[in-house]
Specification:
Blueprint (H helix, E strand, L loop, with lengths): L20 H23 L3 H4 L3 H6 L6 H22 L11 H11 L2 H14 L4 E7 L5 E7 L10 E7 L6 H4 L3 H8 L5 H9 L1
Bound molecules: manganese (II) ion (MN).
The site of manganese (II) ion has 7 residues, from helix 1.
Length: 201
């Protein structure tokens, strides 16, 4: 399959004032679009790899020929991570999780606020470029983690529930060096319905 840049599920200005229209436009079209183009370029002479979904490519990176592996890890990871990132956000929801996801968050971290604090600290502490994640392990337990560059938890067999891009390109136009403010505001635009769907599978 030729990988394609998915449409955003909302308008570029829909996450204002927390994430600005210009950042969303450049982030989606140029950054995410660039990963898709480079992924397709990397795969163009490997029809056997073109048959695989992006998830399958990332779940079995060690099966990819070494000369292609880094390009697929970075650009395939960039494509997968951003596709997920857009869907776990939504216009100003003002929501908190409910149902099983909320229950499991509370039983894991004692309270939603404590979870929020830990996730925010992990996102803030990622040195350089990368992502913060809420992931589900195969035993159903939840964990907060972070990855460098465009690496992601599906390569470790975990299921991502939430993803937060902390590359500077995700926030620099509006927030400059103020990553803490970007992280704080991101909690206003989480799509908890999508997160709950990912959690219950
Ligand atoms: Mn990004």
């Amino acid at each position: 399959m030729i990988h394609e840049l998915p449409k955003l599920p909302y308008d570029y200005n829909a996450l204002e004032p927390y994430i600005d229209e210009r950042t969303m436009n450049i982030h989606h079209n140029l950054h995410h679009g660039g990963y898709v183009t480079k992924l397709n370029n990397a795969l163009k002479d490997s029809p056997e790899l073109l048959d695989k979904s992006i998830e399958d490519l990332l779940k079995s990176l060690e099966e990819i020929p070494e000369y292609l592996r880094t390009a697929i890890r970075n650009n395939g990871g960039g494509h997968y991570n951003h596709s997920l990132f857009w869907t776990v956000m939504a216009p100003n929801t003002g929501e908190k999780p409910d149902g099983d996801l909320a229950k499991t968050i509370r039983s894991t971290w004692a309270s939603f606020d404590k979870f929020k604090e830990i996730f925010s600290t992990v996102a803030l502490s990622r040195f350089g470029s990368g992502w913060a994640w809420l992931v589900k392990n195969s035993d159903g337990s939840l964990v907060v983690t972070s990855t460098a560059n465009q690496d992601n938890p599906i390569s470790n067999g975990q299921i991502p529930i939430l993803a937060l891009d902390v590359w500077e390109h995700a926030y620099y136009l509006k927030y400059q060096n103020r990553r803490p403010d970007y992280i704080k505001n991101w909690w206003n635009v989480i799509n908890w319905k999508e997160a709950a769907k990912r959690f219950t599978g």
